[in-house]
Every structure is written in C-alpha cells, then in structure tokens.
C-alpha cells in the first residue's frame, strides 16, 4: 500500500512511536515525511483522521503545514473531509484549531465537509461547522444541491433545523432541476421536516421546478400519502395548481391509479385541469409567479420595519429601561414583529395594519412610564401614572398570553397531519349549521383579541391624557430631574464584621452559655422588639462559640412555622453527612434525639413566636449532662420565659440602641469607618438618627439609601423631611412601614419588581441566590445589555438588594459572596402588601383560601404546609403564569390547569414516602421556562413528553427520580440542568449544546460515553461533578479523561468535583491519584473556580496548566506534598482570592510565603499533619481568614504553629482544628496557637477545636471534641490481593486507596446467630418473617456474590434501645435459599417470636443449620424443637466479626441509613486500615 512508518504508527494510534519518528527525523525532512502519500493518496494525517486517533492528529499538526493538511486522497477527500465522514468530532475541532481554512475546502464534486456530515447524519459536526462559518450552508454541489437538500431528502430533522436556524434563506435555494429542499422533502416520508421547511416562509410551497411541478405534484407522483395529507392541510396550498404538463395533483393520482390519494385529494376539493375553469396556462403561471413575488416583497418590507422598530426599542431600553412593573411590555414589540414575520399568512385579515398601530401605542406608553419612574420621586408621581402602570401591565400580560396561545395553536395544528376538510354543512330538523375548521376558529379568536387590545391601549392613553395635570406627560416641572442610579455600598453594616452596640450582650450570653460548671442542659432566651438586632446578636454569638460544641445548628422559625422543614434543617446541620431518611415528624424528632443524646450541642432557634413551636422542638432535644446549650430569640416575653423554664435569670432583654451607638452605626454605614459626616449634612443626619429611635434595622436601611447621596444635601433634607417620627410613636412594625416605604420608593425601578417577586416565599424560607436569579430571568424581569448578559445583571440586582438591606444574607462562601438570603418578617409583610396592591404576586396560606382576590391572578403562591386545603375557587387559574406551592402533595392542584405557566416551583412532601408524584402531562405547559421540584417522594417523569417544553431554560429536581426522560437531551432552550446526586443521564447528552450549567453529574454512575460527551457541551460555564457511590473500576480513567474534556470547554467558569458524603464519611476514607489530570492541552482561560475533591483526589504537585489561569479566584486542591515550586506557581495567579490546600505528606522543609504574589488572597485554608509555615513581612496583605487543620501528636512545637502570623496585617479571623491522640498534646498546641494569636496587632477573632483522633482533614462538625486523654485504637493493615481472578477489574496503577478506621467504643461481646432459610418461590419473600419487627437501613453488593446483602435493625432500637441487627442475603447457588445472620440480643418486649420458633419450618420456610446448637438470645426450648439447629456464637470486639460467608463482615452503622463503603467492592482487592501520617 506504500505506507511509511509514520502511516503505520498513525493507523495504529501509537502516539509514542509517532513522537519518536519525528524526534529521529531530520528537521528538513519533516515536511516531506508529512506530505508523503501512499498508493491510495493518503497522508499520515489523513490516516489518523480517518481512524479517529486524536492524539496522533495533534502530534502531526504540530509539524505539518497547511499544504500538507490540504492534500487529497484518490477519493478526493482530504483529512478534514474524511474526519467529517467518519464522525470524528474531536479530530475536526483540532484540525480547525490548527487550520480554520479547512472548513471551506470541497471535494471533486464541490461538496463541503458540511454536506458530507449532513449526508452521514453527524449532528454534532454539522453544528460545529455552522458555528465555524454559516456560509457553508449556501455552498452547493455541482448538481446544485446544498446540505439542506440532502438533509431534507434523507429525513434528518435535526440537521434541517440547524441549517434553517443559521440561514433560513437557504429554503429558497434550488438545484439544477429547479427543486427546493421542500421538493426533496416531498419525496420522503417525514412530514415533520416538511413543516420545519415551511416555517421560514410558507410561500415556498408555491415554487415550481423546471418541469413546473410544485411539492404537491412531486409527493403525489411519488405516492407519499403522509406528505400529501400534510401539504393539503396547509391553508395556503393551491390544491389544483397545474404543472408544466397541464396536470393537477389529482390528475397525477388518477393517472397512476393510486386510489387512496385520489380519494384524499377529491375530498379536499381536488379536480383535474379540465374540470376547473382556468385562464390560459401562461396567464396562470404569470399570476402565480406574481403572487409569490408579492409575498416575498411584503416579507422584505415587514423585515425592514421589524429591524427598525427593534433597533429603536433596543436603544430605548439601553438608554433607560422601562418600568419593571410593566415587565411584559418591553418584550411585546419584538414578539409582535415575530408574529408578523413568521405567521403573517395565518393572521386574520387586517392584522398587518392593526398590529403596528398597537405597537405605536405601546411605545408611547413606555415613554410615559419611563419619564415617571425616576428614583426618589415615587410620592410625587400622579395617581394617573400609577393607574396607567397597573393597567398597562395587565394589558401587556393579556397580549403576551394571547400571542403565545395563538402561535402555539397554529404551530401545533401545522405539525398534525389530519385529513383536509372544507366547510361541512349539516341539516338537522330544518336548521342548517356550519362546523368551522379549528384554524378558522383560532383566526376569528385572534381577530377579536387584536381589536380588543387596540381599543384597550387607546383607552388607556385617552384616560391618561384626560385626567393628567399640565406638564410634559403630566409631570410637573418641579419634579423633573435626571435619573440617578443608586450605588449601594457593602452589604455588611461595617467593614470586617465590626458590630455596634452589642459587645455587652455578647459577653453576657457567652458567659451564660459557656462551661460555667452547670452540666445540665441550659436554655437562654433573648427578647426584644422587631428590628432591634436579636438575629444579628445571635448570629455573631453563634459564630464565636460554635467551635466549643460537638454539634451545632442555627434554625429560623416564623409566625406560621413549617415545623417539618425546621426539623429537617436542624437535623441536616447536626448530622451534615447523612440526609434524613424520612420526613415524618415523629421520625425526625427521634432521629435528632438519637443523634444528640451523647453529644454536647449548641442549638440557636431564631424568632420563636409561640410556645407550641418550642414544645415541639424541645421534644427533639435531649437534656443530658454534657453542658449542652440552647439559645432562643423572640419578640414575645411570655415565650422567652416559657422556653427557659420561667427562670428570668436566663432571659436577656435587648433594648434599642442609645444615641451614641445609633450615631456610630448610622455614620459607619453611610460614610464608612474612615469618614466623618460632612458639616453640611450634620443637621439632617442627626435628625434622621433620632427619628430611627434606636432601631438598627431602620438605621442601616436609611443609611444604605443615602450612601450615594453624600454630596447632595438636598437629598438628605428630603429624607429628613419625609421621614416622620413613626418609630418613636410606633416602635413596632407599624413604625417600620414608613422606613421601608421610603426605601422601596427610592429603589431603582428595575429592582422593585425583583423585590415584590420575593413575596412568593414563606417567611422563614432560605432563598438560594442561584435559584432566585434564574427565576427573575424566566419571569422576564431582567433585560440584557450589550455589555452584560441576563444572568450577570440578575446577580448584580441580587447584590444591590443585599446592600439595600431589603434582604438579609444567610450563607456566604469563603470569598464573602452571598449564597442565600432571607427576609425579615416586617420586610416580608411590607412586600406582600405592595405586591397585593399591584396584583403582582398573590400569596395564600391554608387560612386564607376564602379571601377576596383579583379577577386575574398572575403569580400565585400557595403555602399549605401544616393543613390540608384547596386553592381558592374565586380566581381564574388559566391566567396564572407563576405557581409556587409549598405543602403536602395531596393539596397540590392539578398543574395542567395552569396552561400559561412560565415558572413552576414545587416544594412537596408526603407522610408516606413510598408514594410517587406523577408529572405526566407536564409537556402541555408549552410556555414553561423554569421548573423546580423538591419532594421526599419518588418523582415519576414522563419518558417521552419533555420534548414539548421547547422554551424550558431551567430544570432543577431535588427528589428521587424513577428515570430521567430520554428526550431531555432534545430540549433546545435548556440552559441550566440540576439533577439529584446519583442520577444516570440518558445517552445523547452531547446534543445538549445549549447547556450553561450542569449539576450534579455523577461521574461514577454515568457511562464512559456520557463522560466523554461532556466535552461536546461547549457552552458550559458551570460544571459540578460528584461521585455518589463507591468507586467503580472505571472511576480513575473517567477522572483522567477530564483533562481532554476541560480543554474543549473554553467557556467554563467553574468546575467542581465533590462527594455526596459516603466516600468522605468515617470510618473510611479513600485516596485517588489524579496525576492523569495534570496535563490539559488548552485550559479554559475563563476558569474562575477549580475545586477537585481535595480530601480524596490527590495531585503530586500543582498542575502546570493551573498556573496559566489568570482569572482563577477559588482553588481547592489536594496535594501529595507541597514544595517551593508549588508555592511559586500559586504565587503567579493574579486573581486568586480563596486558596485551600490539603497536603497529605509532612513538608520536608519550611514553606515560606514572601511579599511576592497572593496580593488579593482573602482566605487561606491549609490542612496538613504539620503546618510548617512561615509568613514574611507584607505577605498576603489582604488576607482576612486563615484556617488550619493539623495533628498535634508527636510534633515539635515550633513546627506546629505557623511563624509570622503577625505579618498578616489584614487578618480578621483565625480558625483551627487540632487533631491528636493525646489530650495534653492538643492542649499544648492550642495554648501555643492562642499565644501566637494574641501577639497579632489586629486582634483577630479565633475559633480553635481540639478533636479526638489522628488528622484526617475532615470538615464536618460532628467530630468528637475531647479534652481528656483518650487513646484511639488505630488498626493498621496492608493492601493485599484477595482474588487473582478479579485483577482485571482494577489495574494496579488504578489509584492509591487507604482506609482509616477509628473506634473509641469499649470492647463488648456480641451474640451472633447464623442460619439458612429456604423460601417457597423466588417472588415470595414474606416467609422470611421471623416474628420480630425490622427496619431496613442499608444494602450493598458483595464481591463474588450474585445478590446484594441487606441490613436490618430492630424497629424498637430508638424507642426501647433494642440493639439487634440482621443481615439477609440470597445464596448464589440456590435462589430459594437465604443466609441470615443475627447480631445481638433482643431487649424489646413486643416480639411474638424469634428466629427459631418452629421445628425446621416457619410458615413454609425450611430452616437449615450450618453448625452446632446455639446459645444467646435463642432459648433452649426453641433450640430443642428445631430439627435443623441454628448456630450462634459470642464474639469479642467492636462489632467486626468473622462472617457466615467466609469474608470479614463489614456491618454498616445501624443508626445510619447508608451502608458506607465495604472493603470488598474494588475488583477482588481487600483494603484495610492504614495510617496516612506517621
């Protein structure tokens, strides 16, 4: 074949050999080597591209030139074409990256690679080439056929849609026969393609080929019944058009003898040419051509008009956005223009003239609203302007709803292929009735709507003009001024968390809640009026002392609390690595008590309103004598006394701030700590402070409003004048309404709708920032600009609301970015009042279902958490565009009734978790853009109905999913996808090219194909990976493949790999070597966050590609060891603000941080057995937080404490976790660290925890905190091979794995009973019942066994302390035989039997023995009556016993519902405990 050595290496994909060939080759002969062609004309680049060897292609591209890449083989294909033919997308990407000009090359018949890809149905390649150069769609072969022609002929819908989206005009391109793509589609069987081709312009069905045939003629001649039916169902079709041979479609069908088509065409009105009266052929041809040309000219005029209006609208929006309360209005001009362009042929007569007039009215109204909506002048706005705003918003909603309904109905009817029918007249009892076709009904309906909207818009303008007072558009000259965008300051009242006026209260509470010698549980209450600072006080106290407790939780309640959600929040905080296994109230209470009964805990319950709430929570909190503490905040003094047992000594009264503290808080918020009040503002400022009456909430709210008005005394005087003495007179919520009204009215107009939207949430609900910004976008409240996209603007709005104090931050990350928020109850009341007044959001709980509501509810929020209720009957559900439901599943109304929904938020729960919630019919919500479902039941999602959600942008599911719909990959608008951990996505995710966010993609559960497909999602910006289960044998190869995947994702901003908790939970931990990810050829330049499971995934050193990420802000990574070169690489990252290093090996030398680099670093986490660090003068000048985790066991003191912390001048917070087996060593390390902190001039706050056990870097809050000496038993084993036959499942270089098991339990004796039980059939396992009540708490696969092993515990474990557990596993040799092992003795008294209640058979179950008669909890009489004797034995140890199956029994914790990780899951190897740090 003439292959050279390079050809052979390329064909085999041997990268190393290719590299060696080039290395050994004379540089002057490299070009000759790459240009060499074999007997088939193939170069080595061609061969490697054909075979799909990406690495070889990359190596050859490093040395070859464009001439070599252009060389064609004898089949006229070059390397680019052959890769397109074979479907090698990654190869094409590399070729285009090296030589973009390859995209335009053609073969001998002038076919482009796009044509070739379309011919072979390679969707991804078609998309890539169209993105590279859309002009490719217009290049035709020698026969005149374009890629659209061939895709239409082959019936490839996806390719047709892609081509039309890039260039709709290609539908008019004709080949040498004069045929369009519609003609080609008429020869096939796919009616969907035909309808897609008609979307750009339906007039294309009138075009004739060189023989005068229209598509209907072609379809009839080919005998395509479905195509004929589709064509004649189109309104504009001329069923009796005559071709060049003088034949109609009906005549052709008769000629061919196709009786089926003859009947179809005759019923639709088809006749022959002789049967119809027609003008001469030449005149008809001229008329037809003239009609088509007229439509095209009209379309062009409409397009020009559309672009003119769109340009003017964009200019209007850029200069000053329209009032956000009329949010739908600014979308209407573009929507109406799209209606004119795409559906002009389906609109009623006269609509083309009426719609532009309506648009003109809308633009006039928008101009009026724009002039009226200046910040700071809401009170001066005329009442007519307010009425106009509300009226126009309702008008815009109705118009948008009608247009969407009409377009959807028209498009749906066009996709259906019914038999065409004319008017059918029926006579009944002397009366004649006409059944109108569905299309005609919709056209009549739309005609009436257009007339209605025209009248309403004119009436709105007339009323405004009639009642408005003189002045331009009704605005008095005194009220005219330019618009000022309010520039808010930091969300925190004072820099670095320095709070005002609470130091005395903090010291008091700290003393009450500390170890004051009182061992019993103590409850302390904080009582004060709303807005006085109770929450701020409790949050600061919680931050300071939480490290002293083994378990901590901060929960919020409300006036109408959702107790279920409160308990779930509490349990998830005290037990963070294990999700609640049930949402039942009594089970949640029992789980909390069980977990806390032997632990020292701190619980803060904020904003308790009723003693009944405290009574329920108190049941979940065990008393004990471990110095546990509870802090309650409330506005009700009786509640405060009740919670602390009516002991007034433990009630702290918080009063309003004094004048000095009030002034300090107000001025620090308005001017900052370094600035004094300007003299010209002093009088107004001091008056405002006095009017705030010592309320911190009022002061920070008003001060935030005035932050940007420092140089404008008139603004301060205005606030002083309008701000009355309401707080002095009414210090409660009534007085705060005036403050909030002032703040709200002075918000920028674009924030008002965003604020009112928050009223859909319940009072104590924690709102996630990521969810909220996407909801705002889906609602249309955000308008993109040329500089920023919608999400960026939406996030900025969120931050501005934080700054305005309208919303309160809850959780922040290490970079001080706010991740979630909540609302003060007084703010929420005010927002709900405003929202109800504007009919923006209607929020209803179970006690308000009969309340009077507006006729048309647009956004509905139902809060049915604690009672069964039904939605109000006095409202029209069909107009609702947003539905938020919080409550029990049974109370949820049918979502199908809400046909026009755009946003659907469901937070559901049911007492019976075995039930499922069915989303069948969800596809009928054709306008849906945002769907979020949270549920404790199983979610049943229809498998083939998701494709109907063409506009869905966000899909978030927090629930068990029966199966992910297979057609989810075909949602064209999907931008954000969030699925539960452990979800297996269907194949084909490479089609989801629009995705920007993908969370939680489980790399362990998903197939290798899906993992590689991630590289095709080139629009991804946020990729969140997880590993939910025990690793498979492919895990390391999947992780290594992420290098090439990251190289393809050029738009990536954030990538994280996290564990669901199983892999990180004690008693096991695992290490995976990630050196395969150290090489990324082209790292994403926009990457800002890289977090790669640092506790498990380990790099030998900092990957070189990370040092090139100039925008990287957050880096969390695990290293085998840290050396000076790694520090140098990190020092060069200019934007790094958060750095977290998990280092496994002790440093060989001191790690020194100099003044170079780390200029913007805010947070530094260092976790290592020995923190041998030194900070030189001026090192890390902006560092605010330093977090350490290290082992004090056997370490020299000078290595334990970092040197030079005093040089970190900006340091505000230091936290440390000190591990070690000896309490004395931990205390010594803690004392040395405290002494070092005291030397710091900035007096940073500190939180130091001493934890029992050797260092593992675990970041949970459940680790035992022991101050007394407690030696931990630590078993050390070696990794050994257990089964050589399983070696292929786990390569030797797969990963480094180690398990660490720590136990502080005393040695105890465990009774073990083993037996075999035979059942009657495979399906009937009920015979396994032994008379006791069991609860299943885990299941896992066992190596060498075909069936999993199930784990059960006695249901009386938590109630009566019964310790018995049971293991059940079907044997591999006999499916009717089960191995059963019991551990422990029953202490409950409710049993009615035991595992050996019958002689050999129990209810049809044959009981078989393996060994000697047993002892333990089986009585002698029971054993005697059994012909087949069970076996029991007493085993010493901590619960790990030699098992029945011949391997070591690794029993899960029966108090947990997850089974942990067994030692026998990794391909035949047994992994035991080994120490990480010697």
From TrEMBL:
The keyword Nucleotide-binding applies. GO terms for cellular component: nucleus. InterPro entries: Ankyrin_rpt (IPR002110), Ankyrin_rpt-contain_sf (IPR036770), LRR_dom_sf (IPR032675), LRR_R13L4/SHOC2-like (IPR055414), NB-ARC (IPR002182), P-loop_NTPase (IPR027417), Rx_N (IPR041118), WH-like_DNA-bd_sf (IPR036388). It is found in: Nucleus. ANK repeats lie at residues 143-166. Transmembrane segments: none annotated. One of its GO terms (biological process) is defense response to bacterium. SUPFAM superfamilies: Ankyrin repeat, L domain-like, P-loop containing nucleoside triphosphate hydrolases, WRKY DNA-binding domain. One of its GO terms (molecular function) is DNA-binding transcription factor activity. It comes from the Eukaryota. Keywords: ANK repeat, Coiled coil, DNA-binding, Leucine-rich repeat, Nucleotide-binding, Nucleus, Plant defense, Repeat, Transcription, Transcription regulation. The keyword Nucleus applies. Residues 1323-1386 form the WRKY domain. It holds the Pfam family Rx_N. Belongs to the disease resistance NB-LRR family. This is WRKY domain-containing protein.
